[in-house]
Design a protein that fits this description.
heterodimer; A: 372 residues; alpha/beta; Rossmann fold; four-stranded parallel sheet; 15 helices; globular; B: 419 residues; 8 strands
Chain lengths: 372, 419
Amino acid sequence: MAPIGIEPFIKGLNSHGRRLKTLSQSGKRVLGYFCAYTPIELIHAVGFLPVRIMGGRGTISAADLVSPAFICPYMRRALEKGLRHEYDFLSGVIQGYTCDVTCGATKIWEQNIGGELFHTIPLPYNDNPDARRFFRASIQELIDKMQVIGGRFREESFEESLTLYRDIRELALELYRMRYDWRMPLTASQFLTVVLAGFVTPPEEYRSLIFELLSEIREASSSDIGDSVPVLVSGSLVEEPAILDLLEDSGGKVVADDLCTGLRNFQPPSGEGGDAIERLIDRYINRMPCPSRSRATDRAPLLLQLIERSRARGAVFLFQKFCTPHLADHPLLVTELKKRGIPSVMIEMDETGINEGRLRTRLEAFFEMLRA
Amino acid sequence: MANTDKSGKSKKRLAAAKELNRVVTEHYMACARAKSEGKPVGWMPPMNGAIEIFYALDLQPLFPENWSPVCAAFGLAPRNFEVAESLGYSRDLCGYLRNIIGYVHGPMMEESTPLGPLPEPDILVSPGGGCVPVMKIFHALERRFPDARVFKADLPQVAVEDIREHHIEYAISEISRLIKFLTETTGRKMDYDRLKEVVRLSDQACALWDEIMTYRRHVPTPFSAAEIGIMFVMVTLQGTQTAVDFLTSVRDEVKHRTEAGIGVIGDEKIRLFWDNIPLWYNMGLFNYFENLGGVFVAETYSAAWSLRLDADRPIEALAIKSLMSYPLVSCVSVKKRVEKVVDACRAYAIDGAVLHRNKSCAPITLGQMDIKRALERELGIPSVIIDADHMDARNFSAAQFQARVDPFMELLLERKGTR
C-alpha cells in the first residue's frame, strides 16, 4: 500500500495539548466537549475553539477519587487527565445531553476541576414544532452564557462557522464513499487518526488538511482488499488506533463504521431551514443517532444500509466497557443482523488497552468463519 | 454475619408496615383487574407527572421500576436476570433493566408469581430523558408489546438550579401532549376539576412525606431506612386518596412514637445517612447496623418526593414535578444534591454516612464522591463506601461489607465516646 501523508494528522494529535495550551495563553478561549451532539458550530461562531476532550490509554488513580470504576474507561481517563491538569487550557465544558455518564462527568468536572463555563444543552428527543422551539430557546441560552464569558455572537460569523464545519463533514463523507467502494488506501487506524485529529485541530486548518489528504488519496489507486474480510465496525467512542490495526491484521478490513469517532460525527454535514439557527437545529435533530438518544429499532436499518452499501460481510461491535446505551442496543442489533445473514462479534475496550493475544485469536476465528 | 437470613427482609417496627403490605397487594390486584373493569393499563417510569394524569383519567398506571424491587423482595430477580442474560443483555447493565426485560420474556408468561402476573400494557409512556437504562427498558417493552400504543415522551434534563422558563414551557407542552394522546387513545375526556383534585392529593402526599421525614430529626428517631418501603405510595399511588390515607396513618404513628420517645433500638448511639438506592434483596442490611448501635435516620431517595405542587395550576405543577424529581436524586444535579445531603445531615444530626456505590446505578453513584468530600469538609462527618448493587445480589459481598462497616462503626462509636 502506498504511504499516504497522514503525518500532519499524527503530529496534530500528538502535540495538541501543548498547542492548545499556547493558544489559550495567547487569549483564545478553548471549550471542551465530550459528545458529538455538542453544537460546536455555535461555540466556534462566538469566537471560541471547541475541542473534544480525549481519554486515551493509561492508568487511573486521581479519577478513582471522583468516580466509580463501573463507568466507561473513556470518561474515567478524561477525568484523570483533567484532574492531572492536562486540560487546564479549557475555559469550561459544553455538552449536548447524551448519556448518564457524560452528564455526571460534566458536573464532576465542574466541581473538581473547575472552569468558567459549564453547560449541558438538554437536546429534545422528539422532532415537532414545540421541540424545535424549545431547542431554539436552549441555543439562545447557551449563546447568552457564552457572551457572559466574552464570546460575541454575530449572524455572519455563525454562517461562516456553519459553512466551515459543513465543508469538513462533506470532505470526510467523501473519504467514506471511497471506503465503501473499497478504494480507501488508508488503514482503519490511519483513518481513525485522521478523524481524531479533527477533534483537537482548529477547524480552518483541519479543513485544509483533510482537503489535501483527499486530493492525495484520490490519486492513490487501490480497489482491492485482497483476502481481507470487509466488515462494519459499530460502537461507542474509539480512541485506540491499535485495536483497529489488530482487527485488520487479523484478517478484517473496515469498509464502513457506525462510530462516535467516525461516521456519526459527520452525518449529515448540515441541516435545512430558514435561518442559521434552524439549520443548526435541523442537523442535530437529524444526526446519525447514538444509542443514548435513539431506539435500536431505528439504528438497525441504518447499519444494514451501511452494510449493503459497503458490501461488508460481518460486523464488529467495539464498545467502551460499561457503556449502557451500546450494551442495551446490542441484543436487538445482533438479532437483526443475523436475520440478514450478517454475523457479528463484540469487543469491550478498557483503559489499559487490549489483550492482544486473546483478541487476535477471537478475531482470526471470526474472519475465518466469514471466509468459509 | 451481615444478614444471613435468606429472606433478606428487614425488621419492621412501624405498625404501618402491615398496612403497607395490604396497599402493595391491593395496588397489584387493581392492576390485574383493571382490564376487566374496562380500564386501560399504562406502563410508565415513575417520578414524573404522568401518574397524576393517569389517575385523573381513571386509567391504571403500572411502574416496571417498582415491580423490580417487588421481584427482588420475593426472590424472583435471579430467574429474571437469567432470562435477560440469555437474550444477550450484559451483566454490566442496570439490574432494573435486566430484571424487567427478563420478566416480560420469561416468568410473566411461564409461571404464577406473587402479586403477578402483570397485565400487559395497553399504553406505554416511553421516556426520552430520565436515565438511559429506563429509556432502554421502555424501548425493549415497545418491542415486546407491539400492540401497545406508545407515547414517546420528552423531558429536558436540567439541573434543578438551572431550570428556566423555556424548560418549564416545554415540559408543559409535553404534559399537554400526553393528555391529548391519552384522551384520543382511550376516548376519555379530561375533567380538569378532577385533575386539580388529583394534583391536590399529590401535593398533600408530598406535604405528609415531608412531615413524616421531619419527625426523624428527633433523637431517638421514630423509624429508620428499614421502613423506606413506605415510599411505595409515592411511586405508584401519588394523586390518590389511598396514598394520603396511608401516609396520614404513618404520620400519626410516627408522631406518636416521637412524642412518646420510642426509638428504633433501645440505645440509639449513632445516627446514619444512607446514600443511593437500598439493596432491595437485602433490606435486612439496615438492621445489621442496629446491632452496632446505629440507625439510618435519613437517605438520599427521600428528596425525590420533597416538593410541592400548586393544584390551582395543575399542568404547570406536573411539569415542574417532572423536571425536578429525577435531577434531585441523580447526577443531573450534583451541586443541588450535595447541598441537600449536607443540609439533611446537619438537620438530622448525622454522625456518619454510608455511601452505596451501586453497580446498577451510575447516575446516582456519580457525584457520590463529591457528597463524601462535602460531608467531611463542611460537617466533619465521615463516610464509608460499600460496593453493592440495588438489584443483583451477585454484586454484593457480605464479607467485604462487614470488613468495611465494622471498623467504620467502631470509629463512629469512638468519636462519640459511647463505645
